[in-house]
Prior knowledge:
- The chain is α+β, with helices and mostly antiparallel strands and 848 residues long.
- The chain folds into four domains: 3-275 and 302-329, Kinesin motor domain (Kinesin); 381-407 and 483-551, no CATH class; 412-479, no CATH class; 582-846, no CATH class.
- The protein has 29 helices and 23 strands.
- The chain is elongated, with a radius of gyration of 50 Å.
- Bound molecules: adenosine-5'-triphosphate.
- Adenosine-5'-triphosphate binds at residues 9-10, 12, 94, 96-102, 204, 206-208, 238-239, 308.
Amino acid sequence: ALAVALRIRPMSAAELAEGAWPVAHRLDEQVVVLRDPLADPDDVLRASRSRQKSYSFDVAFDATATQETVYRATTQSLVTVVISGSNATVFAYGPTGCGKTYTMLGTDGEPGLCARTLGELFQAIEEASGDVEYEVSMSYLEIYNEMIRDLLDPSLGCLQLREDAGGTVQVTGITQIPATSAHEVMQLLARGNRQRTQEPTAANPTSSRSHAVLQVTVRRRQRGGGLRHGRLFMIDLAGSERAAQTRNHGQRMKEGAHINRSLLALGNCIKALSHRASSKYINYRDSKLTRLLKDSLGGNSHTVMIAHISPASTAFAESRSTLAYAHRAKSIRTTVRQDPLSVVADLHREIRHLKSQGDTKLGRPGQGKHRDIPYTQAQVRLRGARQELAGARRQQVAPSHLFLQPQDPALPAQHLLALDLRAQRGQQWREKEQGEPIVPGDSEGDSDAGDKWLEVPESPKVAVARKSIAVVAQKSLGRAGDLAACPQAELSRHFRQSQQHARRLEEALRPWSISEEQRELLALLRCLHRPEREMPEPHSHTLLEGGLRHPPAITTQRFGHRRALCARIIRQQQQLIADHRLSVPRPLEELYETYLRELAGDPGDTGTLKVVAHPLSPTQGTSLPKILPVRGAEPPLEWDSAQARSCDHPTLCPDSLPPLRPTRDRYGWAPTTPTHTGLLRGVPSPAAPQPPRVQEDPTGTAGGGWVGDSAAMPQSAGRCRAAPRASRAQTLCQTSGLSTHPTSPSTLGHPPCTRPSANPGGTAGGEGQQAGQGASAPRASAAAATQGPGEGRRHAGQRSRPEPCGCSGKGPGGAQHPGDAAIHPAPSVRMGAGRLAGRLSFPGATLK
Length: 848
Ligand SMILES: Nc1ncnc2c1ncn2[C@@H]1O[C@H](COP(=O)(O)OP(=O)(O)OP(=O)(O)O)[C@@H](O)[C@H]1O
């Protein structure tokens, strides 16, 4: 893009004399603010209008900026551009008397951009390598009243512009003076300036009445290479002026008109170039200035425009239009093209250079390569190495292919078949047992199926399919015999070997006279192949994961079996609950909810669930009771849930799930009714339900603690409630076919045990609270549960101290010590849904 800089000169003496004040300020390195001096702060009608406007540029300078600063920020970079053979342009633009000539030419003490640029240009040429030759020449012209004059030889008169075949605009017949030093150029420049038309105006006593164009041409010739031309234009434009401001008449006025016309043409070009997408045609022909600047503006040049303004309030209008002009120029984009001929020449030279390098490295003379013995030898060795590398690569890749083969291509088919079979059996069973219409994917129905569907015989079609899959699997296993026989360690070793082999080959190639590029290529190839060694491992992981996601038929079968068992357990428990008209404790509801969600695969509802059919209506039939979400409803019954709450979800702490079958050694519970030999040992048969009995409190201080007993249960502050709990447990065990532990405190009169209180604040309610306070009791239970199951059951406000507890180390909740449960799962169902079933069986056997 065209780089645009803005320079604000200091206030002149004349401006200060006429009482002007500064209205243009540099805000930061790029932003300039112009304040309207006529804006009346008391004008309420224009109060909302902004009285100042900011403009941003590539770089902005104020009065404090030195010539050196301006040079470094704008023009210095162009030196390298020009000596490398490209075009560059720097031009000063602005109203008359704003410092354009000062910036470009400067003074003796403060030389301007021209002197500095030329000084650095020659210095760079001097420092350039001996391979490159430079020739510098210069021409200096002015465009005065639309006429081109040679400032180095004014006698030539009016010169003409023409475009050469390459589209470059040239001034015919202009004097080109070779220069060998900056000093020489500056002398020529001074000579030309003396010829430049300069007249005093009211605005500037040394007003330039023409556009001055210094053209420095640098011819760059690379030894053995092509020739390049770099051109540097340094243009000091005449200042735009207003007749009223300059108070010009006659010739001055005519000059001013020409100046303004050419500047207007320049402005139009800038406008058109800044909207290049919409305006395809750029009219450079309106003035000599724009024709000359065609390359600089329209492309093929690195161009810098330095706009100048006065800070004075009296120059506000000119400053505003200049800022807008320069701001618009900022959006011009230029594309620097290189001389195609010189580019081609450079490329040829590069090719020759590379060829000669290659010849030297391979020991091959430029001519007669086939007769050269070292070259032929190198070719043979290279061919051999190539073959060896290819072999190594094949070896390296082969095991990857083995890994990539699926373990058993028939496996997916088997899975499909198993799923189909399962669905088919479920369908058959339901039709037979329930006569229900079947909804595909009805998981609840599947659960209900129990293990009956397992007994449905396999259809002949499925059996045939299974056999054919087995045959295919056998065949494919035979084909992949190598893989099966080759353990992973062996394959890894194989990879390492081939990798080492490749490295050895690479080492062997190193002393050869191969080029740097070839060596780099080899290294790259090795890097490319390396990941393949590591690839099989993640891939095998993926395969393994896939296998887990699609478990084999046997796993599916097992899972179905467990689910069926689980459903049976739940049914029987429901029967038990219904028969005894027991309320469902909240943890059980939660577990049940989790269970149903697992069945439905829906992690959604978290509301409290309530068994609708319970406790008022006994569970009917064999189907699961319907459970509806009841948000915010308190569970109707307190329940010692410490253990259950300590681990709500079976998948989160599966190891703490209570076993279904009571074991004496761990929990102090043992079945006393060996007649029940089903999966739920100790659970009374639903066919012969016995109502739960309320055990009399041996101490006579509390009721049985069962729901509904709360009214009858007096508060018993500070007393351990383990005894009635144990009594209830005992009662239940009697009714459910379980027996209390022979050494249970409830039967042995509470052998005291000293346990540190886990509830120092005494926030957990005691059993008396639970039983006697109805709905508030579960909260206390929950609080107690947070302190560890089986602990902290005492009344609120009870002080923390070791105290005798009337339990046998199981906690006052009777059977509620960690891991306590009345029913233990059979070993075969202690996984997955079976575990969940174990949790569900828990309250049924420990009910008070
Ligand atoms: N940055 C500056 N620092 C100090 N003096 C400056 C600066 N810029 C301009 N001047 C002074 O302002 C006066 C006018 O400057 P100059 O002749 O360069 O203006 P100009 O834009 O070239 O005017 P014109 O277009 O009429 O030729 C000169 O006396 C010059 O020394």
